[in-house]
TrEMBL record:
Pfam families reported in the protein's UniProt record: Ald_Xan_dh_C, MoCoBD_1, MoCoBD_2
Gene Ontology MF terms in the entry: iron ion binding; oxidoreductase activity
Keywords: Molybdenum, Oxidoreductase
SUPFAM superfamilies (UniProt xref): CO dehydrogenase molybdoprotein N-domain-like, Molybdenum cofactor-binding domain
Range of residues in the leader sequence: none
Annotated PANTHER family: ALDEHYDE OXIDASE 1-RELATED, XANTHINE DEHYDROGENASE
Protein name per UniProt: Xanthine dehydrogenase
Length: 699
């Protein structure tokens, strides 16, 4: 057998293996899987923010030819166990938020289902509700815990920092609600088979689902439907993006399964419309961030205060840990973080790419730019002066922290030295031009051990684990890792991911997929070679787990980066363009430069989009998002994105696991709006602290 060690598979620019399948339409998304005689679902949604269903007349809808089922709380199957209140739909006449599912029509074709849904007459008794967020904290309470930290935390003596301070920045930073809008909408096909005995122990539920991993569905859905995990089969080989919005099973999954259960065997298909997605698939909650930085005359931080106020849905609490980075990023002796949340009668939020870091670093990194300006320091110099030796919050050493290399190499590659420190100096016709930068960080996330099975069959190594490819490259890079670990050419690896029945594995989330899955693959390969050697016999197999090495808890573990942006601001129209951006990252071993670069510039693209355009507008008079489509919610198009580049520092972090890789799924978005806002300040002298940076804020 040919056993190459050089060139390695890891590090090679392998193209996405499912790319040709996707562009030719042969990699099925959830909705596209073949289903025999499917039925089509259209939901009934609550038209009020709170209330109770008084009466339902479905006779006209049921009379429409082709209608198979009108399902409401009156006839829907009962749900069993589960702590997530947002999943317990159709169990009572109560309405908890605008757009909540209150029923569904299922028909032989999609058009009939939609038409019949309009014919269901629902009388609702509205109830008083609250959907007005108060950024000043009115009506808010301090939560007990946010992302593993207490709702209120103080380190050191902020009073002493205050007394000794020469420079101060005390400002408020805000951003609106953002909605995940992956290319593939949330969609599934559900089939509930029962045998003639109708014995619930013999039923079998299959979902072809769009998700970021089968594990959460395996954990949440069986208890809800009163079945065992092995009665649920999940098939999700090619998910078309998620950004966190497909991380957990959502109400539409429950709705479709309820209908499938009532139809007993007939597959039920449901693909959400964009408008429906804006109502029930979660979002990044808005937040108000109050930052107070105090520094000595040389710009060395003495204190950081970061207070976050954010709304949360009454139905299901979700709070972004936006102040997390403020605790451990800069070497400030004193720090205080506080969260306040206000319960509203609105749809639940969820994690969205860079949850916490994205919003918190917008505030912190804009404030740092303001501090640099106040101190008369270059923004990079200010950051270098505040680089900590060890984690300022925990005191732990960093596993690796090559952030200063990101600053230096990023600055050189971007041409940072051309920046004029005095705002408003560079002008071309109607356009003012400026450069800005901001730091990026994303923590190590370890949730559960990932396991992997390797089996030698038909001359190839089957590598099986419950991983997921959400369009980021798992199908492509995991064989690279496996090939090196088994010391075989990559064509001897047969990867299997994206369905239930495989090993327990981390979801494609928390920027933790590659090092969690890759770590398990390497551990399994080591075990395999120890047990079976390099000329295994047919059927030889092992199962082994990954995870970070023992002792990892003694380290402060993060991926780091620096973002550089050029902004052009039109003095006549207030329009902002970002012709170029660069990200410089220290993110551990890069497994594949093509897929890594895509992740990085994809993050930057999403960051530019949020900085300039994205804003979900919730109307507090009704409690729903009013601009719930791509006309009203603009996502950056090709014409909005200029030249993006990503570079990285050579790094290997063993504490993240044997791949040496850190996470790169989210760091590309962190700090991007701050870098752009700081560039806008450099261009114009106007400081923007409120996303998105729309023309009205610059005129
Ligand atoms: Mo990501 S927001 O951890 O799916």
């Amino acid at each position: 057998m040919n056993r190459p060690n050089d060139p390695r598979s890891v590090g090679a620019p392998r193209r996405r293996v499912e790319g040709p399948l996707k562009v030719s339409g042969t990699a099925p998304y959830a909705y596209e899987h073949p289903a025999v005689n499917p039925a089509y679902l259209w939901p009934l949604t609550a038209p009020v923010a709170r209330g109770e269903i008084a009466e339902i007349d479905s006779s006209e809808a049921e009379a429409l030819p082709g209608v198979l089922l009108v399902m409401t709380h009156l006839n829907a199957p009962r749900l069993w166990l589960g702590n997530d209140a947002s999943l317990k739909i159709l169990q009572s006449p109560e309405i908890a938020h605008h757009g909540q599912f209150i029923g569904a029509v299922v028909a032989a074709d999609a058009t009939t289902a939609r038409q019949a849904a309009d014919l269901v007459r629902i009388t609702i008794t509205p109830a008083p509700f609250e959907a007005t967020f108060h950024p000043d904290g009115t009506g808010s309470t301090v939560p007990r815990k946010v992302g593993g930290s207490p709702g209120e935390m103080t380190r050191g003596d902020l009073g002493a920092a205050e007394a000794a301070a020469v420079h101060r920045v005390d400002q408020h930073y805000a951003h609106p609600i953002h909605h995940h809008n992956p290319l593939e909408p949330h969609a599934l096909i559900a089939q509930w088979r029962e045998d003639r005995s109708l014995d619930p122990r013999k039923c079998r539920l299959t979902i072809w689902d769009a998700n970021q991993g089968v594990l959460p569905s395996q954990a949440y859905l069986p208890p809800l439907f009163g079945i065992l995990p092995n009665q649920l089969r999940i098939i999700a080989p090619y998910t078309g993006g998620g950004f966190g919005g497909k991380g957990l099973p959502l109400p539409h999954v429950v709705l479709t399964i309820l209908a499938a259960k009532m139809l007993r065997g007939r597959p039920v298909k449901y693909a959400m419309t964009r408008r429906q997605m804006f109502a029930t698939t979660g979002h990044r909650p808005e937040s108000a961030n109050h930052i107070r930085l105090t520094a000595d005359e040389d710009g060395r931080l003495l204190g950081i205060k970061h207070e976050v106020t954010a709304p949360t849905a009454r139905l299901k609490t979700y709070i972004d840990a936006s102040a997390g980075s403020s605790k451990s990023f800069y070497a400030a002796p004193a720090c205080r973080t506080l969260y306040r949340s206000q319960a509203l009668d609105i749809a639940p939020a969820t994690f969205m790419r860079g949850p916490g870091e994205f919003t918190g670093m917008f505030a912190l990194e804009t404030a740092m730019d303001e501090l640099a300006h106040a101190c008369g320091l270059d923004p990079i110099e200010l950051r270098l002066r505040n680089e900590p030796e060890t984690d300022p919050q925990s005191g732990k050493p960093f596993s690796t922290r090559n952030l200063t290399a990101c600053y230096h190499e990023g600055a050189a590659a971007f041409g940072w030295s051309a920046r004029n420190a005095i705002p408003g100096q560079r002008r071309e016709g109607e356009w003012l031009i400026g450069l800005g930068m901001a730091a990026a960080v994303f923590p190590h996330v370890y949730m559960l051990p990932t396991r992997c099975r390797i089996r030698f069959k038909g001359g190839r190594y089957q590598v099986q684990l419950g991983a997921s490819d959400i369009g980021t490259g798992a199908w492509t890079i995991l064989p690279q890792i496996a090939a090196d670990a088994l010391a075989v050419p990559i064509d001897q690896i047969a990867l299997e991911i994206g369905r239930s029945g495989l090993s327990l594995a981390m979801v494609a989330g928390g920027s933790a997929g590659t090092y969690s899955w890759g770590g398990a693959i390497i551990r399994a390969a080591e075990r395999f070679r120890t047990k079976h050697g390099d000329t295994p016999s047919e059927g030889a197999q092992v199962v082994a787990g990954g995870g970070p090495p023992k002792g990892y808890k003694n380290y402060s573990m993060h991926a780091y980066g620096a973002h550089f942006a050029e902004a052009r601001v039109n003095m006549v129209t207030g329009e902002v363009r970002v012709p170029r951006m660069l990200g410089a990252y220290a993110a551990g071993q890069i497994i594949n430069p093509i897929t890594a670069r895509s992740q990085m510039i994809g993050g930057m693209t999403m960051g530019i989009s949020a900085a300039l355009f994205e804003e979900s507008v919730l109307d507090p008079r009704f409690g729903h998002v009013v601009n719930a489509d791509f006309a009203g919610y603009h996502i950056a198009s090709h014409a909005d994105i200029g030249k993006l580049d990503a570079i990285w520092i050579d790094e290997f972090d063993p504490w993240f696991g044997p791949t040496g890789a850190k996470g790169i799924g989210e760091i590309g978005i962190v700090g991007v709006p701050a870098a752009i806002g700081n560039a806008i300040f450099n261009a114009t002298g106007i400081r923007l602290r409120d996303m998105p940076f729309t023309p009205d804020k610059l005129l």
